[in-house]
Amino acid sequence: MNKKNEIKQLTDPKRVSIKSSASAPKPLDFDAFIPWICEEFSVPYEIYVTRNLRDDYISTSVANCRHSKSHTHHTDSNKVDGKDFKSTSQKSRLNFNKFIPINASYDTKGRLVEITIIGSPFEIPRKLIIAISLCVPFHPSLSKITIRKRGLRLPALYEVGKLLVHSNITEVFIEDCYVPEGSYDLLLKRACNLKHLSLRRLCINDVICVRIAKRLDVGEPASKTLLTLDLAFNTITDVGAKAFGETLRSNRCLVHLNLCSNKITDMGADSILNSLIIFPLTIEEVRCAKMRRFEYFIKKIAAFRKNEQLLISRREEEKISGSESKERRKIKKQSINKSGQTITQLAEKLTQEEIGDFVDVFDSSNINYINKGLHCNGNLRLSSLNLAYNNLSYVTVRKVYDTLLMQRNTLAKLGGLVRVVLDGNNVPNDCQEIEGINNLLSKIISDYSDSKRVYLQGQSVSNTTELKSGKNAKSKKRNPLQVQSLTLIN
Fold first, then answer.
1. How far is CA 350 from the centre of its chain?
2. What is the pTM of this model?
């Protein structure tokens, strides 16, 4: 209750002094508004906002004409659109030992696209994140938040998770910011637009990894939106890898998983790879699938009854009011007779538009009967897997080859892995399985790209293969996540 009251007080417009409100910057003016509002919130540290222009948001044609080597143009952080503003750091002499730096990146049209906090010497106040959340609705182009190198603690992390709900932010990068509680799963707790999450160098162990994996289980909000997850340079072992193996059995949204530089062995890699091929369903998975179907029909019946009652009440109101003319009533009766739809049929149509068809990962299209048992086709959505610099051996190389072979032969047209990274593991440099992996992946990559690369022993060997051109040549659309270089084994 104290936290809720504090937030209400912070966001209450009456709290702002009359003197400051006269010259107060607007939330649209992010560079000036953040230092000002943080002073109003009594944030103990000075906030210094730096503004820069991001050239990487310019179209390719314009960028080629300019031939610019630099990707960032720094401008005067004290001016926004030619207007001076007074930040907290300007009202007193700037103390470089006591301020939090914020980097605001804008595109060429002056739209805020990214907020970066790097190297904060102090704990990032929760009030600062609340201040940023006040600006978020006024900056719909804001799509990325980056926090690196110290400063993040649980209160601010919690506010970042809340901020994502009412924003268009799709990318969150939190790196080198150790939070003792390890509650990084709070970023995936609520329904939002988050698609890319990077949690590098955060000392994430198996306990934290299991919590993150559970946030991606079917039915959770993040299981429908998150596309890429980067957990590189942590302390995840086979326990965490097994948790992701269980998650990937039902998750059909995640495309890229990076577990580079952890402590995963062949057992953990086997758990992940087993979810990518045909696997038998457990009793619990069958029970949960039936429960989801049952909940769907309950929801559909409730929506049908609500729509039916709404249609009936509308007709009764029309009869009682009698406001409609006779000619309009005749037109309505004729239209109803022509369509032949009763109230029940109209309610069914509205319910179908509102609820839609039942779609589940374990529906009839993905289930096969093998040896009198139910088997699922496996996860063919995951296309990129990075297991570099772990504790893997030849056993994982063999498993990768068998997985790719089964995906290509059994489920060739449905998807599957197109990129595997195994650098830095104790695996042979050259063997029959490596050659087989190269051949299997090169067939897929050649359909999307005209070049491929094979990395062996840290050396890059480029092999360029031109796509067939001609009248009978078929062109396929490029997938930015699938047009990747084939990266194999140290």
1. 31
2. 0.76
